[in-house]
Amino acid sequence: MTADPTAHVTAHRTARPTGRPDPARPDPARPDAAIAKASTWNVGTPQRQRETVDAIRKVWESREWPHPGLLSYSVYTGEDGATLLHYSQWTGEQAYQELVRDSRDARNAEIDAAVPGIERVGIQTYEHYRSGLRAEGDTRETGCVVIVDVEFAGPDRARQRDWVDSVFEALAEETGLPAGGIAAHFHTSTDGTRVLNYAEWESAGHHIAALAAPGEGVGSPSPLWERVQKYPGMTGGGVNRYTPALSLEPASEGQSGDGGGAAGGLR
User: Which of 57, 186, 199, 200 has the largest CB neighbor count within 10 A?
Assistant: First the structure.
């Protein structure tokens, strides 16, 4: 499933964000998101993780939605007890640049005043390429998001997609998938050098159990999985587990967002 870059958002600039009941979950495969942004903040301790999420929530919910091109913004706490993952979806790069120009610094300054010393560790831009979606009628909550980050030697858009396609070929050969897996959403970086898999699991324990099974990583030993794991040009990457903490979206038509409604998320 590939994102449709021609789709557009209908939310008004003046709509306020509303928070989903935690654990919150955006839809990484939504067709109106032309790009997604992923970044990490290092805040140092589990207590500061909680304080920073609270500060982000207060800043975002006390202001109008900043830009109609921002479709969702979600924050996740890292299992390491020190980091926060930010994942946001946009109608395009221009929308992101306009938000940066008009309002990002003021929001970040208010967050920094509440939790001084946050280290912001880069940001990457991705396009959604392909998803293994949850089965119809599957209502399980996403208790853990596993981010699989793969790096390649130099830009090559065809190589990014071929690697993802190789993963799906290997999955198709599996007779039984690990318990607890819900969905996987593969993104390719716009600079041609990385792939990010946003994988939804019921819990961190389910993912840990899947990794403990025979083979390297999730998946039984096979030539297809070996090709994925030893793909030519792959230079590195990592696997990190996160817990959904906050997800915001613009309030829907006719919804003020002041009453603690259950609508959506932002970064």
Answer: 186
